[in-house]
Amino acid sequence: MIRKLFAVRAARPIAAGTEAIVWAYRLFLNREPENEATVAKLARELPTWDDVRRTFTSSEEYRTRIVRSARPSLNGHEPPMSIEDVRDPASVACLLDHIAKTWTRFGDTEPHFSVLTDERFKAARIESSRESFNASGKDAVDRLDAALARAHADPGARATCFELGCGVGRITAWLAKRFDRVIGVDISASHLALARAHVDAEGASNVELHRLVSVGTLDALPRFDVFFSVIVLQHNPPPVIAAILDRVFAHLNPGGVAYFQVPTYRAGYSFALDAYLRDDVGKGEMEMHVLPQRVILGMAAAHGLELLEVIEDPWTGMRPGEVSNTFLFRKRVGR
Questions:
Q1: Could you please report the per-residue DSSP string of 4-72?
Q2: Which of 188, 197, 199 is nearest to 164 (CA)?
Q3: Which residues contact 126 (CB under 8 A, 6 or more apart)?
Q4: Burial status of residue 309 (CB atoms within 10 A of its CB: 0-12, 13-18, 19 or more)
Q5: Is it the case that residue 129 has pLDDT exceeding 60?
Q6: Rounded to the nearest 10 degrees, what angle do helices 126-135 and 137-150 cross at?
Q7: Domain limits of the chain?
Q8: pTM score, two decimals?
Q9: For the chain, what is the largest distance between any 2 Cα atoms, rounded to a whole number of angstroms?
Q10: What is the C-alpha to C-alpha distance for residues 268 and 320, in angstroms, rounded to an integer?
Q11: Residue 197 C-beta-side C-alpha neighbours within 13 Å
């Protein structure tokens, strides 16, 4: 009987409701809701328990409440990762082609969900959640502004910003309000088509979009003053991440800043080209990869970039044994 009940539960999402919202406030935030109107609104927006749990546990209030019990994701005794150094252009092109096919399929089937893996943003529900999806892009630009302010490195509003992995334009439209010119690049034509429609609807006439056909595509782009990329590089194998960053650093204007996120350690992670080509290429899954700090810092130094800030960020969930970092670099004048 118990197995049968669990099977039924697994077969369909469990409906929530106003009572679920009230108890979520009590369990996750340790307080009562603001008012009945807020409860009713959330009950409409979060129809299943999965929606309720995900929304409350990802809220800033919840993270602030549990910070006292938080522990560092690493303890300092972790062993090195085994990551093969692959620089052969043909191998990098093969890896990038595989990623392009995977993300084009995501763009054709679940474009918004592939950007933010939240059930609310699946194709069947995006029309009712599109507003909150697009609004979430502002937070990423606010984080950028906060980092620039901490480092006293604001390039000003008249800068040209290059966004790698613009997706469907969720952040792009907000960057267009912040900078004089925005160059968005994505590997998926499907995503780019939606991005073009979104930024046009937002009246962002200062945005140009390009498809990343090859790593060499980056060489043909204009130089820029700001490089921005979050929750993008992590979906590429280490050789692709390294090849992209190498070209981005080269095309950053002197005095310009690079602000980007990438996982830098995961316990048990390894990458070997032959094994990856044999076991992973063609599966079409959303992949999560790592590039060690030493590689990123070494490439940055070779291009004359100085590190202004590196923080441990929450973009991959801050799981034990894993580190995701957001870096802020500035290119020295004269490079």
A1: HHHHHHHHSPPB--HHHHHHHIIIIISS--S-HHHHHHHHHH--BHHHHHHHHHTSHHHHHHHGGG---
A2: 188
A3: 112, 113, 133
A4: middle
A5: yes
A6: 10
A7: 2-67, 83-331
A8: 0.83
A9: 73
A10: 12
A11: 7
The values of phi and psi at residue 164, to 5°, are -90, 125
Report which secondary-structure segment, H or E, holds 257.
strand 252-266
| The dihedral sign for the CA sequence 164, 295, 82, 77 | negative
The pair of three-digit structure tokens given for residue 199, joined into one six-digit string? 């930024």
* Per-residue confidence (pLDDT) for residue 50, from 0 to 100: 85
Tokens 């952040």 belong to which residue? 171
Q: What is the mean pLDDT of residues 302-307?
A: 98
Q: Which long-range contacts (CB under 8 A, 24 or more apart) does 117-125 make?
A: 117/286, 118/54, 119/48, 119/50, 119/51, 119/54, 120/45, 120/46, 120/51
What is the CATH superfamily name and number for domain 83-331?
Answer: Vaccinia Virus protein VP39 (3.40.50.150)
pLDDT at 79: 95
Q: Parallel, antiparallel, or unpaired for β 82-83 and 224-229? A: unpaired
- Both tokens assigned to 74: 């690493």
* Token pair in block for residue 187: 């590997």
Residue with tokens 């996120």: 261
What is the rounded distance in angstroms from the CA atom of residue 59 to the CA atom of residue 62? 5
Residue 2 pLDDT class (50, 70, 90 cuts):
very low
